[in-house]
Amino acid sequence: MPRLTSFAAPVAAAFLLSACATTSDLENVPEPMGRFLLGHVVTVVEEPEIGPFSREATDEAWEAAIDFAIEERFGRYDGDKYFHIATKVDGYALAMIGVPLIFTPKSVLVASVTVWDDEKGAPINEEPEIITVSEELGFDQLIGTGLTKTADEQMLSLARSLAKSIHTWMLENPEWFGDASLMDPETTSAGRPAPTAGTIPPQFARVEEGEDGATLSGGEEVGGTSSGVKTDAAQNAEAKATQPSS
Going by C-beta distance under 8 Å and a sequence separation of 6 or more, which residues neighbour residue 39? Predict the structure, then answer.
């Protein structure tokens, strides 16, 4: 996987905006988003660029972390129209151990995001939205999470920050998801069990102390419609997400 040579700017920008990355709002009822119902979560990680002073992680680990974070956040909605969220990881940095107050590497994630309307079988946003995030805001960012967190924990924090930023962006475009008053009560998924905010599945359990750079293990697939069968729109979203960025 190639290393980024100019990763300082995205890291600095994400850290300055990190106050917006807190995900404590998962405990609240989500803001209305029309007829939105989460369909498939498509996460693509193919040779992302890696920032300097970064731990490395497997593609599968990133897919598991982002899939979980998006399902955790968007699985709370109970509309009647499926929308798929396709994410491509463009680059990342997972902070290594530094020297507190002198040199504290920061963790950052850069991803391209596209939302697909299942009914139309097409993306809502023709050009992918490029989102850069840091870890969730916390005191340990000041001393460097390379000292306080494992790679697993850093990835999960970044994935949750990414899901939060995607959510904020989508809420800024309410016209995408239709009028909730038009929902068919016979087809709505109201009452289906939603993920419990903040509950981390077994594959995200903290690794044993001393296993620096360990990555998330495999686990149950998360996200997707209840049938488990991808629609044409979901397959198209996956195909487009795998295409090289222009």
Answer: 82, 83, 84, 116, 118, 224, 225, 231, 233, 234
Q: Evaluate whether residue 183 is within a structural domain.
A: no
Residues constituting the chain = 246
Residue 184 belongs to some domain of the structure? no
- When divided into structural domains, the chain yields a total of 1
**Pair 151, 213: CB distance under 8 Å:** yes
User: What CA–CA distance (Å, rounded) separates 171 from 165?
Assistant: 10
Range of the domain at 12: 8-21+33-174+200-205+212-241
pTM value > 0.85: no
- 27 within a domain of the structure (yes/no): no
Contact 152, 160 (CB under 8 A): no
* Closest to 137 in 3D by CA, of 9, 10, 16, 13: 16
Handedness of CA 165, 86, 119, 125 (dihedral sign): positive
Is 192 contained in some domain?
no
| 171 Cβ contact list (under 8 Å, min separation 6) | 31, 33
CB atoms within 10 A of CB 94: 29
Per-residue pLDDT of the chain (246 residues; tens, 9 = 90+): 454 445 555 544 544 444 345 567 888 899 999 999 999 999 999 999 998 878 889 999 999 999 999 999 999 999 999 999 999 999 999 987 644 544 466 789 999 999 999 999 999 998 999 999 987 655 455 444 445 578 888 899 899 999 999 999 999 999 999 998 888 766 555 444 444 444 444 544 443 333 333 334 333 333 333 333 455 555 555 656 556 554
Whole-number Å distance between alpha carbons of 110 and 108: 7
